[in-house]
Amino acid sequence: MREFQIQKNEAGQRLDKYLKKHLCSAPANFIYKMLRKKNIVLNEKKASGSEKLGIGDTVKIYFSEETYEKFTAPVSGLALEQQLPEISLDALPFAVLYEDDDILVINKPAGMLSQKASAEDVSANEYIVSYLLASGKLQKEELKTFRPSVCNRLDRNTSGVLIAGKTLKGLQEVSEGLKNRTIRKYYRCMAEGQMTEACRISGYLRKDEEKNQVYISDEPCTKEDKKIETQYTPMESFSDAAYLDVELITGRTHQIRAHLASIGHPVIGDLKYGAKKQKGGGRLLLHAHRICFADGQEITAPLPHVFEKALKEWREQKKE
């Protein structure tokens, strides 16, 4: 028999979801059968699996040691910690912008994936879990039933604010805030051409999964097309470019990049969406600059060096 007490990271989820994570190699019908036969009980009582877990609840699993080990072994055969990169707290691959008991906000560098695109990838997700383990804020045993994860996504070559849920509560609250737009996201970018007036633009976005590219239209062309809205405000204007503050009203794949390109102002360095190769060393000059929470709290990620350098060049050119 194994007994588990529900901790903060595990509370708030359904019992069956908890069991599917813990008994990661067990078929779902097996888990429900064990619940019906009272081989798995919640707080000493028979359970259906639909119960919401609270901190301090106890789950007892009446399996033989052999059966328990069989169903808790990851399908891949690899321990969760073996899939994580080694990390040094003195040389983190990202800057920590904010951290509390439930969330972690980092400044993701360009070139780092937010989440895995393939099994062999190492993304911000894996680095964040390694950081939490190395700093003692997460225990390996907890990974069996809850894995911290990023709440928003940034393209590989977009730097800036990335929010992760350290606990289930944090993950759920941030995800809800992003969904209902009580958490607002602002970006900084350099766009081609002169732009002097603030504007709110809308359209419909269609994604081509095969090409990993999106297309914008004024009206929906298919039922899969998603409504998008983007607000931009010029911070500075130059002869051939504009430094913009962009609020992402809706959050879709490549939205800012494709939306600005659709009105003739692609983000500088964005060759995929028609930009010319110029200042910034060909790097995409798009940065997730800040987030604003419903309570008024703001978290800002400083511009990366390559962006600052390119902006300085435009300013110097303007003086000439």
How do the helices and strands line up, and which of them pair or pack?
Layout: E1 2-5, H1 15-22, H2 28-36, E2 40-42, E3 45-46, E4 58-61, H3 65-72, E5 95-99, E6 103-108, H4 124-134, E7 149-150, E8 159-165, H5 168-179, E9 184-192, E10 199-208, E11 213-217, E12 226-237, E13 241-248, H6 255-262, E14 286-292, E15 298-300, H7 305-319
By DSSP, the count of extended strands is 15
User: Low-confidence stretches at least 5 residues in length (pLDDT < 50)?
Assistant: 75-79
**Cα end-to-end separation:** 78 Å
Oligomer: single chain
Shape annotation? elongated
Residues in helices, as a percent range: 10-25%
Q: What Rg is obtained from the alpha carbons, in whole angstroms?
A: 23 Å
Q: What is the residue-averaged pLDDT?
A: 91
Number of helices: 7
Percent of residues in beta strands?
A: 25-35%
Structural class designation: alpha+beta
The topology string of helices and strands comes to EHHEEEHEEHEEHEEEEEHEEH
User: Main β-sheet, in a few words?
Assistant: 11 strands, mixed
